[in-house]
Specification:
This protein has 107 residues and is of the alpha+beta class. 43% of the residues lie in helices and 16% in strands. A two-stranded antiparallel sheet has the order 1-2.
């Protein structure tokens, strides 16, 4: 699934217009890596499948874009990305692009 950003985004060497989240084909070890990083940061999410750090880390590993770059995105874009990961983890299938567009966070 490709998630378009609300506007072009530049950060260091990254020039992004969309984030490619191929969650359906990601290796299962991204979950272990995210768990390990969350633990390393001493972060204790109440429900990790809905936690922005956990979901952001998974998005980072799957898209191969450092978490620090994703975290620097405008809030609506970051929320859209983490919501897509959360929906995938909770539903076992990729979220519909209609439910994860930046426009859904407007107003």
């Amino acid at each position: 699934m490709k998630i378009p950003l609300s506007k072009p985004f530049q950060y260091e060497d990254y020039d992004l217009t969309e984030i490619d989240l191929d969650l359906a084909n990601a290796p299962a070890n991204v979950l272990r890596r995210a768990d390990a990083e969350v633990t390393r940061r001493k972060h204790v999410p109440q429900f990790k499948q809905m936690d922005t750090l956990y979901c952001g880390l998974i998005a980072s590993y799957v898209s191969k874009i450092p978490y620090e770059v994703l975290e620097a995105l405008p809030l609506p874009d970051f929320a859209t990305i983490t919501q897509a990961v959360s929906s995938f983890l909770l539903n076992g299938a990729e979220a519909s692009p209609d439910t994860t567009s930046p426009e859904s966070f407007a107003e």
